[in-house]
Every structure is written in C-alpha cells, then in structure tokens.
C-alpha cells in the first residue's frame, strides 16, 4: 500500500468522477465504494467514499458537500508518451470542462490537470539555451501542448 494517498473532496460526484477517471487510464479501477447509511449525513445508499486507482496510483474521493471546491493550486500531472495521448486525454478531460494554458485544464468536476508530453520537458531542458527558450516561448502561447509546433519553434 502506498504511504501517501491523494484525497479529493467532491460535492456529490465522487463515484461518477472515479468511474470517469478510471475509464481514461490503463491499470485503473474503482476499488471500493462506502455508502452513506441511514445516519447520514448524505442520502442513504449514495456514495460517501470511493477508493480508486489511476495508472496504479491510489486516490480517495469523498462526497463531502459543496463547502469546498478544487482550485488550480493543486493539479494532477500526467506524463504523456505521445501527442496522440495528449490529444485523447485533452479531448476527454475538457469535455464539459475548461481549457487553460500551458497544458493545464479543468475537468467537468473542477479538478485541474496538467496534460504534458514528455517531449516538452526534453525541449525545455535542451543543452542549447536558445532552443530551450524558443520552445518555452512557444509553450507559453499554447493551451493544449502541440509537440510538432514546439519542435518547429525550437528548431527556429
């Protein structure tokens, strides 16, 4: 069992969100759903706590009510192998959500994600500082990260 687990507070969409998120990543599944009983505070039979794994990483989601919402101060960073993976995750996660900049987005539940191709990190740490700066400048003008456009910018 992992030592530290991310705990996510939802209003009342924890089970729906966990099911959605597990549909996006390989090696993902809902592990357990604890439901409210007659004592509440939520409606009896509805999900209280949902434990799930995304790509082998454990998360817990709570239906805690509307008192707290997500902010961009915390996000889930996804290391993508390819532009195709970026494109697929971006499309699915922004559906009903909101695009931001530099690979950041908010999903339909308000949770912030960074959908980042590995190639971006390689370009930003290029041994040629001019190439790295050109890639950085290009990235700062993007919402979804576009690897071919980054490569073109880096190459001048």
Layout of helices and strands:
Blueprint: E1 6-10, H1 14-22, E2 29-35, E3 47-54, E4 57-63, E5 75-80, H2 83-94, E6 98-99, E7 104-106, E8 112-117, H3 118-124, H4 129-140, H5 147-154
Parallel strand pairs: 1-4, 5-8
Antiparallel strand pairs: 2-3, 3-4, 6-7, 7-8
Helix pairs in contact: 4-5
Spatial strand sequence of the major β-sheet:
1-4-3-2
Q: Give the overall form.
A: elongated
Largest sheet descriptor: 4 strands, mixed
Oligomer: single chain
Instruction: State the order of secondary-structure elements, H for helix, E for strand.
Output: EHEEEEHEEEHHH
Describe the structure.
The protein is an alpha/beta fold. Helices cover 31% and strands 28% of the residues. The chain is built from 5 helices and 8 strands; from the N terminus they run E-H-E-E-E-E-H-E-E-E-H-H-H. The chain has helices spanning 14-22, 83-94, 118-124, 129-140, 147-154; strands at residues 6-10, 29-35, 47-54, 57-63, 75-80, 98-99, 104-106, 112-117. The chain has a 4-stranded mixed sheet with strand order 1-4-3-2. A hairpin with a 4-residue loop joins strand 6 and strand 7. The radius of gyration is 18 Å and the shape is elongated. The mean pLDDT is 97.
List keywords for this structure.
alpha/beta, 28% strand, 31% helix, 4-stranded mixed beta sheet, single chain, 156 residues, 5 helices, 8 strands
């Amino acid at each position: 069992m992992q030592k530290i687990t991310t705990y996510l507070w939802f209003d009342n969409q924890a089970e729906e969100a966990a099911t959605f998120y597990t549909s996006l990543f390989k090696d993902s599944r809902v592990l357990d759903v604890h439901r409210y009983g007659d004592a509440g505070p939520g409606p009896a039979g509805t999900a209280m706590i949902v434990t799930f794994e995304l790509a082998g990483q454990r998360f817990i989601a709570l239906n805690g009510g509307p008192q707290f919402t997500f902010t961009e101060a915390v996000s889930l960073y996804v290391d993508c192998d390819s532009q195709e993976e970026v494109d697929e995750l971006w499309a699915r996660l922004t559906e009903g959500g909101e695009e931001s900049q530099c690979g950041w987005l908010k999903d339909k539940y308000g949770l912030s994600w960074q959908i980042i191709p590995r190639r971006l990190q390689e370009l930003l740490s290029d041994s040629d500082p001019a190439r790295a700066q050109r890639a950085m400048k290009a990235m700062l003008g993007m919402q979804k990260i576009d690897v071919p456009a980054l490569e073109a910018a880096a190459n001048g």
